[in-house]
What we know:
The first copy, chain A, is α+β, with helices and mostly antiparallel strands. Chain A is built from ten helices and five strands. The longest helix of chain A is centred in the C-terminal third of the chain and has 25 residues, at 131-155.
Amino acid sequence: MTQTHDTLSDFEAxxxxxxxxxxxxxxxxxxxARTANTFSDEPVSDAQMRAVYDLVKWAPTSMNNQPLRVVxxxxxxxxxxxxxxxxxxxxxxxxxxxxxxxxAADTAFHDELPRTFPHFPGxxxxxxxxxxxxxxxxxxxxxxxxxxxxxxxxAAGLAAGPMTGLDMASVDRDFFxxxxxxxxxxxxxxxxxxxxxxxxxxxxxxxxVFTTV
Amino acid sequence: MTQTHDTLSDFEAxxxxxxxxxxxxxxxxxxxARTANTFSDEPVSDAQMRAVYDLVKWAPTSMNNQPLRVVxxxxxxxxxxxxxxxxxxxxxxxxxxxxxxxxAADTAFHDELPRTFPHFPGxxxxxxxxxxxxxxxxxxxxxxxxxxxxxxxxAAGLAAGPMTGLDMASVDRDFFxxxxxxxxxxxxxxxxxxxxxxxxxxxxxxxxVFTTV
Lengths: 213, 213
């Protein structure tokens, strides 16, 4: 069957705005998923975290540099230390969540490049002498991976409660004494509890965000 | 039916590592999706970009601040300007892609907070006097949104080619003369072409990334 230009335009007008991802997955990851403020008592297992990582590890980073490091805070002692660094209402949320993860950027990510970017042997040395470039690259790509991790938590049927209201420098000193890590966010993880969220907040319109040149 | 603790542990051992997201969606977004280096000639429509945004806009940012701004580079004139700012091989990729998007952080995001975070009227002023906090917050959250956008492009059945190998400051000056935007990445978008990708690069192991305290 020959398609005329008009037919293609009609097709576009009718279906051009449709996604390939199925509606259930859209809802699970984006439309019905919400930042949870309360959680049920159900624990979150290491197996679930492994499944999340085994999925989201495939998402892209610059030069495959993968700077994200994750600390799962499981002991009461470590939880108490972390709560001290959180701001305001985030203290109670962090105290109550079934699992809390500290997400940080490893500024020594370049030491892995011979393994993760093997076809460019000079990659490690490119970063070794430039602390500022390493810091910027680590922060940007760990932030990308933080977002992938949030989507992955939702893919496991769990709710994420990402927080940046905390004393990042204090968490760095307390949990990463090597001085090479920069905390990006703390994420509460679990099944949503009672009154887990308020009314959804407004999003910017397409026209506010996108321009064409 | 009563479940004993042992039964739950057996369940966990067998299924605790399974994701809720269906396998097709896992493949589409993560496992089979790849960073494309070549593209077909098929154009990418504004309707597709709207569909992507209407999905990924729901993903979380700090205080719902949504600093990401996207410039769709559609004119030959703007494309030629952008190509000049790209590094090495990224010039040819940027020249050839069906659609190229500049993703940037708007450091004036706080002007939208009265609309996007209305229950905290002091939110705008909290940032108005602190340029450094505004810059850091804008960069972190625009990076999260860059990752959501990459996932959204894949949800539309398209391939993304995100690039950070470019002169960010030059793109800022050229495309954002207001001085308030910071380029995060340039993303090529389209259907994958011939030899669109090389062999998949190795990912870090779970044990390299996760620790428990």
